[in-house]
Design a protein that fits this description.
The chain has 173 residues and is mainly alpha-helical. The chain has two domains: 47 residues; 106 residues, no CATH class. The chain has five helices and four strands; from the N terminus they run H-E-H-H-E-E-H-E-H. The strands form two sheets. It has a two-stranded antiparallel sheet with strand order 1-2. Helix 1 runs antiparallel to helix 5 and helix 2 runs parallel beside helix 3. The longest helix has 22 residues. It comes from Carex littledalei. Keywords: Cell membrane, Disulfide bond, Glycoprotein, GPI-anchor, Lipoprotein, Membrane, Signal. Pfam families: X8.
Length: 173
């Protein structure tokens, strides 16, 4: 039988490399729901400027952060910016490049929603549509596939499994 340390090393290396490829495809954030939010250290003036752009020329639906809206909180510019940024991000297909706002925004896997103020996430992009329950109407976006479970990610796990079986069999024979 071959060196068991070598077998363990090969298995761990395969696992690490497969995990690294999976993380790269998701912009450095693990698969699952993703939101675009305002950075905690962003300047209020910069945030207000970014909100104005997102809610104006950017085309984000900012009704929920206006007076009477489910996310309206006049004293919390961070929350308002996060909602506007996230709406713009989702409406632009969840592309990482749609979450910058002059360096005042970042992607997160932590749900920024609270109480009746719910933020749509990247999983809202399934089948190319944003849920009508979130926006009141269906808006077509991006590819017509679930962005969080693409076939190439599934293939990574199949290749990992096949590689693991190969290494085990090669060391047993």
């Amino acid at each position: 039988m071959r060196n068991p340390t070598l077998v363990i090393f090969a298995l761990l290396l395969t696992l690490v490399l497969t995990g690294a490829k999976h993380t790269e495809r998701n912009g450095g954030v693990a698969a699952g729901d993703i939101w675009c939010v305002a950075k905690n250290n962003a300047d209020d003036t910069a945030l207000q400027s970014a909100i104005d752009w997102a809610c104006g020329p950017g085309g984000a639906d900012c009704r929920p952060i206006q007076l009477g809206g489910s996310c309206y909180d006049p004293g919390d510019i961070q929350s308002h910016a996060s909602y506007a940024f996230n709406d713009y991000f989702i409406r632009n297909g969840g592309a990482e490049s749609a979450c910058d706002f002059s360096g005042t925004a970042a992607l997160t896997s932590l749900n920024p929603g609270h109480g009746s103020c719910q933020f749509p996430s990247s999983s809202s992009l399934k089948s190319g549509n944003v849920s009508s329950a979130v926006y009141g109407s269906t808006v077509g976006l991006g590819p017509s596939a679930d962005l969080n479970s693409s076939p190439s990610i599934c293939l990574d796990y199949i290749w990992f499994f096949m590689g693991t079986v190969y290494v085990i069999l090669a060391n047993l024979l």
